[in-house]
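re: ur question from yesterday

yeah so i grabbed the chain u mentioned. its 99 aa long if i counted rite. heres the sequnce exactly as i have it in my notes:
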Amino acid sequence: MTERLERLNVFAGSYLDRQSQLREREDWLADAIANPATVVVPVWQERNLFNRGETLHAHFLRDAQVLLRATDPRHIVLLGEFRGAPSLMIEFDGEAAPA
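ran it thru and got these structure tokens back, copy pasting raw so excuse formatting
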């Protein structure tokens, strides 16, 4: 099962609109933080959180404006738009898993 998880890319697919043109705008991050619909994909040591059920899918943090404001912008990546909402990745540093 571990090998299968390592090869699985749940971020590939037509359901994520990459919105690459937004990366050229200086205000994209401020707009995403201000948007209550924004979802965050947490990443630590190149590992993602997943929800298990009938299918395996990425775990999204919602209502994460406080976390986004407290995070160094260099650790935030615009993934695109997921179901009409801005989708960001936050990369967490450190040896210990974030709480």
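noticed a couple things. The chain has three helices and seven strands. also The chain has one domain: 2-92.
anyway ttyl
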